[in-house]
Amino acid sequence: MTSFRNILFIISLLIISNPIYSQTPSYERPRLIIGIIVDGLQQKHIDYLWNYLEPGGFKRLIEQGTSCRNVSYNIVSSGDAADIATVMTGSIPYYHGITGNAYFKRSDRTIHSIIEDENQSGIGTTMNVSAHNLLASTISDELYLAFPEKSKTYAIAIRPEDAIMLGGHTAKSVAWIDNVSLKWVTTTYYSEGLSQWADKMNTDGTFNNIVAQKWEPLYNINTYLSKPNKEDKKWGFYYDPTSRVSQYSPTTILKNTPAANTLVAALAQKIIEGENLGNDAYPDMLLLQFTVRPPNENTFALQSAEKEDMYLRLDKDIETLLQKIDVKIGLDKTLVYMFANQTGTHSPAELGMNKIPAGYFNARRSMALLSSYLIAIYGEERWIDGYYGKNIFLNKSKIEEKKINFKQMQQTVADFMLEFEGIQSAFTSSQIVGMSGNTGSEMFRIRNSMHKNTVGDVIFTLLPGWIEVDDKNKPVGESNAIVSYTPLYFFGWHIKPRKVDAAYQTTDIAPTLSRLLNIPMPNAATGKPIEEIVK
């Protein structure tokens, strides 16, 4: 009888414990996934500086990993938020909803940040932001859904839009740099708020110590390939990251100095250590944003000692980060992927200096002329509600009140816009929505880049070499190439050293990660896995 009871007890234990065991992933996966976006990164810059790079930084990623050199964005350039959302969801703005860093809101006729959310509160900042406008799941969201409360995601960025799009909906915490208060900040949208490691850097002096280091050349200024933009006779060049952007601005230049990259790398190391990322069979994700843009950059080319120095210092930060991961987790258990946002190969200023047609398109002046033209045709009314990012919003209520044919006015506006210097084409929203045919065409890229919640009534494009700027001369999207490419590197876990020349799109990155992790693709994914990586 005792023996029979013991057998029943053992069987009961097995039945009770079985659900626990079934939750342990049996498929072999990387323990940690490191996703990196580098703002302004170009493959030709890496090639140009190759002999100056450390063996353990960019070189290690490229030589020991897989480099994909023919990866393009199938959307129009409109800001980092759209680019990152496209990579993280494996989808396009038409589905995921992030059409740029900002959008025009018809209800109040003003421009809003794409991450604005009045239902959330800032932590260390007055910004109220979240990922609520991101309408699709990301690869990190799918990882969390596969292993709830087991897999953890953290995102660290220089700018809030990048941090939110990297973190998606389910990150434990995201953090970005506030370059006024000079500290890490975040939003209440994420479960942990500001991570204790970011908070500690704010309070123990680590953040301020990094920012307080003056930026001067890493090496002798005579060894650089280009001259400084802002030459200093003693140092070669010299910047204080706490300097103000302008005399009356509270904003500092911190986000465009190597100190910003060092801050991101330092917090990444603290989170890896403090949160024990990659310490069990449930994969974790750490998503990072760096930059290679120096202050007052007026060309996308590698033509200043400051930009070279940004690359060389970031190279060292990446080397240190990889070393930390190797000691803590093992690079053989870590999957790293790195990509860039859309950046023009040459700026309009650079093209112009070389007698190549180019220019800057200022929409405010164009809208003033368009308004006068519509008044001359239809009468003294405000026919234009607003404008943002090559999208023109007509005053629908006034058009309806005056019983004017709306589609006819749309076409009138589109035809008029073609008269402006720098404009390539103009379409009505109905033409874009109803399009068919070649998926690689200009109209199809516009269609990919729009969403019903934010699309204008008339959308136009610019000629090659032209870039739109706002009233502060800041670019609204930085690439106007017919096809915009990004370098893409995979390194670490089961990744073989090779170069991939086959053509892929950035929407293929998330499906590739899904296949490697053996989890569902994001729910709006339109891409396909990169065969050379997953086979």
What is the name of the CATH architecture of the largest domain? 3-Layer(aba) Sandwich
What is the CATH fold-level name of the largest domain?
Alkaline Phosphatase, subunit A
- The CATH class assignment of the largest domain is Alpha Beta
- Radius of gyration equals 25 Å
Number of domains: 2
CATH superfamily of the largest domain: Alkaline Phosphatase, subunit A
Distance between the termini: 56 Å
Specify the structural class: alpha/beta
Please outline the major beta sheet: 11 strands, mixed
Helical amount among residues, as a percent range? 25-40%
| Tally of separate helices | 19
Topology:
Elements lengths: L1 H21 L9 E8 L3 H6 L9 H6 L2 E8 L6 H10 L3 H4 L5 E4 L4 E4 L8 E2 L15 H8 L6 E5 L2 H8 L5 E6 L4 E5 L8 H8 L2 H6 L46 H17 L9 E8 L13 H24 L5 E7 L7 H6 L5 E4 H16 L5 E5 L2 E4 L1 H6 L4 H12 L5 E6 H5 L8 H8 L8 E5 L3 E4 L14 E9 L5 E3 L3 E2 L3 H9 L13 H4 L1
Parallel strand pairs: 1-9, 1-10, 2-18, 2-19, 6-7, 6-9, 11-16
Antiparallel strand pairs: 2-17, 3-4, 5-8, 7-8, 10-17, 12-13, 13-15, 14-15
